[in-house]
Structure prediction request, 236 residues.
Amino acid sequence: MKDILEFKSITAEVKDIDTKSRVITGYLSNFGNKDYDNDIIEKGAFKKSITERGGNIFFLNQHNWSQPHGKFAELEEDSKGLRFVSNPLPNTSYSNDALELYSSGIVKEHSIGFNTLKSDYDKKEQVRYIREVKLYEGSNVTLGANPETPFTGFKSMTLTQANDQVKSIVKLLKDGTLTDDTFAILEIALKQLQKQMYDLGKKSLDNNKEPLVDNTQKNNEPNQDQLISTLNNFKF
Prediction:
């Protein structure tokens, strides 16, 4: 679905780990290879996004918007894929753990969070060619992690709680007094909420199981359609 956040993960693309300077070098995405979703990202897909919003693309820990490692010192396309050099990772528990996991070889994957803007689908090959994306973040991800479920905390929320969180984020974004970095982080948070809400709604419809809220829901509580509408209609 257009405008819904997507995730792509690649393996063994850590090129250098400088534990002294706390800088990581590697690739966030490869060009030309078909992934498990039968998608192929083409060279040039990130060019516009890097040019227009390069300063608002974050390096996250495990797709967790509340655990940013910071931004990228370098982010560019080369003949292989989307190459990055991180800024020095901050002295936080999660960044320190990430460095240890990198050094021990446990972390061998990187993943990106993005919206697909331009793509073509080859029915004969059953392959989607992704030609342009809006890139929000790149993450280190633990080997074996499921890139499709980065925001695990949202699954335990009621719709009322989710709606309250969405309203709070939207209010902050519209306030206009945030720093650029905070704005970018909350934008990622809102996109993740949007995707999770969409996935939960789709799963509920596909399985024809119980609704996402119980039968004690009050009439003035938001329903799933209202929350999805709020998320989909908010424009950055």
About this structure: The beta strands are 6-11, 14-18, 23-30, 39-41, 58-61, 64-77, 81-86, 109-122, 127-141.
